[in-house]
Amino acid sequence: MKLLKEIFAYTIGGLLFVGLIPFLMWLCAGCPAVMAAALWRVVTSNILIIIGLALSVWSIVYMRRKGEGNPLDAFGHEVAPRTKHLMTDGPYRLSRNPMLSGVFIYLTGICLWLWAWQAVLVFVMFIVVMSVQVYTEEKRLRSDFGEEYEEYCRKTGRFLPKR
Questions:
Q1: How many domains does the chain have?
Q2: Which structural domain range is residue 141 located in?
Q3: pLDDT digits over 102-152, tens only?
Q4: 162 assigned to some structural domain
Q5: Which of these, 31, 80, 35, 33, lies nearest to 60 by C-alpha position?
C-alpha cells in the first residue's frame, strides 16, 4: 500500500508540474507554434528545462533514499509517506525545496520558449499557490523536527541558496 501511495503521488506530481502547468501556459499564450521560437530561446530554454528537471529528479531520488519518505502534504493532507529524517545535505543543502526550485527553473525555461506574458502570468499564479503550499509544509516540518528544522531554515533559503 505504501508503494502504491508513493507511485500515485509522484505520478500526479509529474503530470501536474511537468505536463499540466506547461500545457496551461501554452494554452493561455494562445497556442503558439513551439518550433517557431528563435534559436537562442530554444537553446536557452532547453538548458533551463534540463537543469530544472535534473534538480527535481535528484531531489526526489535523494529524498526517497535518505529521507525515507516525502515531505509533501497537500494543504495538510498526507499524499505520500512523510520523511523520517530531515535532509540537509545533497540537493537540500542548496535549498529547502529543491524539487520545487527545479520545477521553477523548468517552468522558467517553458516561459522563455513560449515568450508570452500570459505564460508568465500562469507561472506567477503557480508560484503563489506553491508558496502557500510550502508554508503549510514548513509548519509540519517545524512540528516534526523542531529546533533542527529551525537551524536548517537559518542556514538554507526556501527556494534559492543563501550566502
A1: 1
A2: 2-155
A3: 999 999 999 999 999 999 999 999 999 999 999 988 998 899 899 999 999
A4: no
A5: 80
